[in-house]
Amino acid sequence: PLLNETAEKTYLLVELGTQSFFNEHLEFLRRGHSAECSLEAILKLSTRSSVDIGIHLMFGLPGETDEQIIETARIINRLPISNVKLHNLHVLRDTPLAKLYQAGEFSPLELEPYAERVVLFLRHLSPNIAVQRLAAIASRWEELLAPQWTRHKMQSAEFIEKMLAERGLMQGDLYDAGARSSQFELLSQHVPIVRSL
């Protein structure tokens, strides 16, 4: 009720820190929620309120594949989401990820391979979904270990936009409204709000 009351008076956007629709990635990140939980939360917000819904996604996770990037876009295309914010996984001091990084067990993506993943995602993403952020910005610079390009506020966005322009690519140029997502079907089997799918 509170969300609907507020949405009647003013524009209201709820953003969810989904980060990934693949449970192995969420387990690595120690998010404390599953992909099914994210899907259920999105559908509940959509069916029980009139708010706009945005999600945060993270790229550059260990074992991440191009197929998962494409699947992520296809899942989002089927959901009542108005916008996304993209983040790259970066390493901050005194964190469990820092220990993996210092032990040589994890290496964050440099800018170019990260940009390649973002471009792949964007090409499969519906052009009707707003992209509000292309990469993370390390707000606590003194704690950042890697990658160093995360320090620069506009460098990543400009790099990605230039890559798209030079290749003549754009958001949604591979979007297929009828494309199915096996991951979406798998996740939705465990979500009780089936009427929204």
- Give the CA-based shape: globular
Largest sheet: 4 strands, parallel
> What amount of the residues lies in strands?
15-25%
Helix percent reads 40-55%
Give the structural class: alpha/beta
Total number of beta strands: 6
What features would you describe in this structure?
- This protein is of the alpha/beta class.
- The chain has a four-stranded parallel sheet. Strands 4-6 form a two-stranded antiparallel sheet.
- The two termini are 23 Å apart.
- It has helices at residues 2-9, 23-29, 35-48, 66-77, 96-102, 111-124, 155-167, 182-188; strands at residues 13-19, 52-59, 83-88, 91-92, 130-133, 144-146.
- Strand 2 (52-59), helix 4 and strand 3 (83-88) form a beta-alpha-beta unit.
Question: What are the key terms here?
Answer:
alpha/beta, four-stranded parallel sheet, globular, 15% strand, single chain, 6 strands
Topology readout:
Blueprint lengths: L1 H8 L3 E7 L3 H7 L5 H14 L3 E8 L6 H12 L5 E6 L2 E2 L3 H7 L8 H14 L5 E4 L10 E3 L8 H13 L14 H7 L9
Parallel strand pairs: 1-2, 2-3, 3-5
Antiparallel strand pairs: 4-6
Task: Please summarize what this structure is.
The protein is built from eight helices and six strands.
